[in-house]
Amino acid sequence: MPEILAVKELKGAGATEDGINCRLDYVDLNDQPGALVFPLDQLDALVGLLLHVERKRSAESEEFPKQTMALLAQNVEVGSSNEDQMIMLDFHVDQRKFAFALSREDAINLVSIISTLIPKH
């Protein structure tokens, strides 16, 4: 049986110093700090799992049946990586930076979606 990790609060997330693994710092239900470290190549699977759980929870919730996730960023930095053909997005929220990497195809689709949502003058 897999171990269940229940957390009270996520304190931070990022790559380990060697850049090989991801790290999630948290406070558990007993107010003890901890960290979850996993291979960087599993990040997509983790994000997908978290989004799936959030959608399922929102769909089953009677109080917030149409709840969506939102993040208000003060600044967004965009860059690219020539090595793996990825578009890098850094969203700045308060004093934290949330980094995302998209394939060039997904980035083009995102720009297309955003451009349809922005009113044209």
What does this 3D model show about the protein?
The structure is a single chain. This protein is α+β, with helices and mostly antiparallel strands and 121 residues long. It folds into two domains: 67 residues, no CATH class; 51 residues, no CATH class. Helix content is 26%, strand content 39%. The chain contains two helices and six strands, in the order βββαβββα. The protein has a three-stranded antiparallel sheet with strand order 1-2-3, with no helix packed on it. A three-stranded antiparallel sheet has the order 4-5-6. Strand 5 and strand 6 form a beta hairpin. The N and C termini lie far apart (58 Å).
Unreliable stretches (pLDDT < 50, length at least 5) are none
Spatial separation of the terminal alpha carbons? 58 Å
Strand order of the largest sheet: 1-2-3
Radius of gyration: 17 Å
Whole-number total of structural domains: 2
Decide which structural class fits the backbone. Answer: alpha+beta
Biggest sheet record: 3 strands, antiparallel
